Amino acid sequence: MRLKQLTHQGSSFQSFHVRHDTYPKNHNVWHYHEELEFIQVRKGSGTLFIGDCIRKFGPGDVVLIGPNIPHYWFFDPEYLDAIKPIATDNCVIHFQKSFAGEDFFYLPEMTGIKDLLLEANKGLWYRCDSTDPLNKLFEHILIAGGFEQLLILLQALYIFHHKNKIMLVSDNYAILNHSSDHKRMNDIVDYIQTNFRQHIELSDLANLAGMTNNSFCRYFKQKTGKTPLEFITELRIASACKFLSDTNTPLKEVCFECGYNNYVSFHNAFKRITGLTPKNYKIKAIPK
């Protein structure tokens, strides 16, 4: 999936594209594009799939995604309800590495931002608190125009460069040409997301992809950096984290709700992925 014309609010052509999303229709799909994606989640939560990383996202998260890295913003069910979805609030900016000109970032003053755009190939994450200046910049860029928007974007990138960011994509993940796999991967990921609370047969996924089991495992690992089992396990644990953070559901009920048939397997997988036991995670997640 490649972004086409870069315009602002359908008006004049610009060197980058700013969008205000109040519904996750543009995110809830496995996709990639040549443009970098700079996004602040102002309202909304769910699970982000990027390269070989699966992690929860929520309000205050700022993410910079490099070119051609597959990603999928899987919003929580309340934001996708067919009858009465809860609105989201996200500022999304797409731009090419050369959006300010081929030589602009070779200026000595631009070294920091130039380095940041290279680091974006690993996907970068940071969470703002309520006092962070990035909040105002993302707010203002939605209502600014032309030259002012450009200045705000450069300022936001400069500030983001100096944040203590987390790299999301591992060094082992290879960015490939995914052009022929858009529909196939979306079908596979949609099936897993719909059925991860149940037992998923490898043969069902392979049949969906039109492959043998062995070929599918190699294909899926190449595209996501994970085996199908690793991918499903991390999705289940991400779902468990939401339950433990947002509800008073008993631990054993969370275990079954997230697709596990016995608590020991759930406990071991949860601790391996999060570094905490489910009980300790729940204690840590409860606001003091």
UniProtKB/TrEMBL annotation:
<dbReference type="InterPro" id="IPR014710">
    <property type="entry name" value="RmlC-like_jellyroll"/>
</dbReference>
<keyword id="KW-0804">Transcription</keyword>
<dbReference type="InterPro" id="IPR018062">
    <property type="entry name" value="HTH_AraC-typ_CS"/>
</dbReference>
<dbReference type="InterPro" id="IPR011051">
    <property type="entry name" value="RmlC_Cupin_sf"/>
</dbReference>
<dbReference type="InterPro" id="IPR009057">
    <property type="entry name" value="Homeodomain-like_sf"/>
</dbReference>
<dbReference type="InterPro" id="IPR013096">
    <property type="entry name" value="Cupin_2"/>
</dbReference>
<keyword id="KW-0238">DNA-binding</keyword>
<keyword id="KW-0805">Transcription regulation</keyword>
<dbReference type="InterPro" id="IPR018060">
    <property type="entry name" value="HTH_AraC"/>
</dbReference>
<protein>
    <submittedName>
        <fullName>Helix-turn-helix domain-containing protein</fullName>
    </submittedName>
</protein>
<feature type="domain" description="HTH araC/xylS-type">
    <location>
        <begin position="186"/>
        <end position="284"/>
    </location>
</feature>
<dbReference type="GO" id="GO:0043565">
    <property type="term" value="F:sequence-specific DNA binding"/>
</dbReference>
<dbReference type="Pfam" id="PF12833">
    <property type="entry name" value="HTH_18"/>
</dbReference>
<dbReference type="Pfam" id="PF07883">
    <property type="entry name" value="Cupin_2"/>
</dbReference>
<dbReference type="GO" id="GO:0003700">
    <property type="term" value="F:DNA-binding transcription factor activity"/>
</dbReference>
